[in-house]
Every structure is written in C-alpha cells, then in structure tokens.
Amino acid sequence: MDKPDSVTSSESARPSLWRRYLEISLIWKLSVALVLGIVAGLIFGPGISVIQPLGDVFLRLLMMLVMPLILLTLIAGVASVSPKTLGRIGGKAFVYYLVTTAFAMSIGIGLALLMSPGAGLDMPAGDEDEGETAPPLSEVLVDIVPENIFGALAEGQVLAVMFFALCAGVALAYLQDSSDERLAGIAADIRRFVDGGVELVFLIIRGVLQYSPIGVFALIAVVVGETGSDALLPLLQLTGSVYAGIFVQILVYALMLLVFRAPVIRFFREAKEPMLTAFVTRSSGGTLPVSTQAAERLGVKKGVYSFTLPLGSTINMDGTAIYVGAATVFVANVTGTELSLTQIATVAAVGVLASIGTAGVPGAGLIMLTMAVTAAGLPMAPVALVAGIDAILDMGRTMCNVTGDLAGTRMIAKTEPGMLEEPRDPPAGKLEDSTQDGRKADDL
C-alpha cells in the first residue's frame, strides 16, 4: 500500500544525515574533534598511532592545494591591480612582518627571563648532535629566482613560485591594457582561465574542509598519545612561557586592529577556523587554503590577500620567534649560562633574519632554534629536551603565525583604496552568505 502523500512529502523534506552534517558550523566540528582526540590520546597512549594515516591524509590534502592556490590566486590578484599599487602592498607587508617578528622575539626572551624555564633541569648526556642548519641568507635570496618553475612547484619552493606568479601577473596586467586588440583578447582568455582555476581550487578546498574534523581528531590523538601528560611536567615552565608570549602577541594584534579601526570581534570570529587549523596541522603553508577563505569573509580583495598570505606563511613567524627566544633562554638555564646583552641581541637578530629562510611547515622552528643557540655560543645538547615537546609548542606558535598573517592582511587592505569591502552584519535571526560560494556564516 502506498504511503500517504503527506508522509512522503515530510520524509523528502527532511534533510539527510550528510546534509545535516554539512549544516553544522565547521568550528564546532573541529572543536569536538579536538576534544575527542585529546581524550583518545590519553586513553590509548602510543597505541593510538595506528590512526596516524588519517591525519597524514589531511595534511597531504592541504599541502596538495598550496602550490596551485599560490600560483593561481597570486597571478589573478596581481593582474587585478596596477604595478604601483602592488609595490605599495609588498612594501607594507614586508615592514609589518619584520617589525612584528622582532617584537615577538623580544616578548619571548623577556617572558623567559622573567619565568626562568629550565632552571634545575639536567642536560641530557651523550647527545651532541648539531641538528639541521638553515641555508645562508644569500642562498635564500638567489633561490627566489627559479631555474625551473615546474621544479619549484614540485619541490614546494614558495618564494620561487611567488616570484614567477608575480612576474606572470604583472605581464598579464600590461597585456590587458594593450592597445593591440589581439594581445588584449589573449590576455582576457588567460585571465578567464586563471579565474576559473581559482574557483576550481576553492571548490576543492570546501570539500577538504569537510574531511578536516577526521584529520584533526587523528593528529591530536597521536600527538597526545605519544607525548603523554607526564612528558610535559619537566618542561612546564617553557611551555607556559611560550604560550604566555603567544597570548600577549595576539593581544598586540587586537590593539593594532583597533588602531586601524577594524572590528576585532568580527576578525577573530572569521579567523578562528584558520587559527584552529594551524594549531592542529602545525603548518602555516598547509593552512593557506583556510586562511584565504577567512580573508575573503573579512572583505579583503584578492589583490591583497593573494600576495600577503603566501608571503606571510614564508617570512612571518611571530609565534616561532617567541618560541626561539624562550627556548634559547631555556637552553642557557639548563647549562647554567647567564646570557649577556650581546648574546640576547644576537639571538634576536638571528631569529628575525632566519624567519625569512625557514618554510611554514611543521618543525621548521627547530632550525631557527639551532641557529639562535649556535649564534649565542651555547651547547646544542639541551635542544634535545625542547625537541621532546616540540609538537606541543609548534601548535601554539603556528597558530600565532597564521593569526599575524591574517591581521596584517586585514590592516594592509584597510590602507589600500578599493581593497577592502566591509561586510555587513546579517539581520537578527537570519544568516547570510559570507562568500559567493553560498556558505553560511557561523552562528554567534
């Protein structure tokens, strides 16, 4: 017997389980995954590492999108603005990143000197490995110009890909203004192709974000399971110093946003997804797809964020600077060394300059720490203690890095005419699309 029409229509109107899952705000799904991951890691311990592949897949999905995202969005963004405007944006971004990194380094050193992390700990014996070394600054500058753009894309050389995309974007901007109709027509076709590529990447990003709670759960569970709560106790002061510094640095971003008359609450509401993604993935580069979406929701135009966010993921490492400053003081305390003003100044300078040459991927902070410890003339052995909890510290410092990238992008867009579209608050009780792709804004 057929069901009544009213029952059939009621069942068809009821959203499916998958649809209801999609309608849940991503930040809530990520938060639940974060809590469940911590609980699972504490319960199962190192055995939880069997789910590591689930987290690795998430990281690979994000990293898969980084290079095409940088290449396509930067070409499209640069082609949409004049070379004169691009020069202003690049100069502002570079000054902002260097100044905030130097300030962050000072915060890390100052808080560590105040809290004295590492005092009373014993230096591990029989481990004098010097670890990895960062390339010299001259090599970094030369490598910005790629020998082979396809090789740079394959190897994930962010600065080299950005250099090519800048050149291509500027050339496309000039072609679009060409008086030759044939060249202008070719430029229009190329622009449509690039814009289509950008939309294609954004569509893939939205799909990847639906998998992100599974990846977050796996990554957090494995880190907690392998580290354990007891492993943090001997280094609790260092962890506290780093996270206190990160908290202060985020307050600095909030104050700077107020100076630029940016709505701070709205900023952090839109930034919470990339902040949490950065926290669990420990990758500024891998978080780029999520940061790009947040910048769009903040009203920043592609001409700004397509340049500042990839650049920031490479050279803006405020959280890492805090970590390096605090960890260097920790190493000095473990070895019973009292840092001189000259050593402190050297560590600060090396940390700021090293941020230019270290990529935004998990573990890059250890390279900067190695450089700072070596420059200060301290032994490398205590670095092994820091490496034991590097994953925990890396989460916070990467979140700080990404927050700084977004804050700088928002402030720079405010100073550029036509590069910021202030979003309107949705009517009470209603939600409006936050972007052109039709995704709903998060509930307050």
Automatic annotation (TrEMBL):
<feature type="transmembrane region" description="Helical">
    <location>
        <begin position="94"/>
        <end position="115"/>
    </location>
</feature>
<dbReference type="GO" id="GO:0015293">
    <property type="term" value="F:symporter activity"/>
</dbReference>
<dbReference type="Pfam" id="PF00375">
    <property type="entry name" value="SDF"/>
</dbReference>
<feature type="transmembrane region" description="Helical">
    <location>
        <begin position="200"/>
        <end position="222"/>
    </location>
</feature>
<keyword id="KW-1003">Cell membrane</keyword>
<feature type="compositionally biased region" description="Basic and acidic residues">
    <location>
        <begin position="421"/>
        <end position="444"/>
    </location>
</feature>
<feature type="transmembrane region" description="Helical">
    <location>
        <begin position="57"/>
        <end position="82"/>
    </location>
</feature>
<keyword id="KW-0813">Transport</keyword>
<keyword id="KW-0812">Transmembrane</keyword>
<feature type="transmembrane region" description="Helical">
    <location>
        <begin position="344"/>
        <end position="361"/>
    </location>
</feature>
<dbReference type="InterPro" id="IPR036458">
    <property type="entry name" value="Na:dicarbo_symporter_sf"/>
</dbReference>
<feature type="transmembrane region" description="Helical">
    <location>
        <begin position="242"/>
        <end position="260"/>
    </location>
</feature>
<feature type="transmembrane region" description="Helical">
    <location>
        <begin position="156"/>
        <end position="175"/>
    </location>
</feature>
<feature type="region of interest" description="Disordered">
    <location>
        <begin position="416"/>
        <end position="444"/>
    </location>
</feature>
<dbReference type="GO" id="GO:0006835">
    <property type="term" value="P:dicarboxylic acid transport"/>
</dbReference>
<feature type="transmembrane region" description="Helical">
    <location>
        <begin position="367"/>
        <end position="389"/>
    </location>
</feature>
<dbReference type="InterPro" id="IPR001991">
    <property type="entry name" value="Na-dicarboxylate_symporter"/>
</dbReference>
<keyword id="KW-1133">Transmembrane helix</keyword>
<feature type="transmembrane region" description="Helical">
    <location>
        <begin position="21"/>
        <end position="45"/>
    </location>
</feature>
<protein>
    <submittedName>
        <fullName>Amino acid transporter</fullName>
    </submittedName>
</protein>
<keyword id="KW-0472">Membrane</keyword>
<dbReference type="GO" id="GO:0005886">
    <property type="term" value="C:plasma membrane"/>
</dbReference>
<keyword id="KW-0769">Symport</keyword>
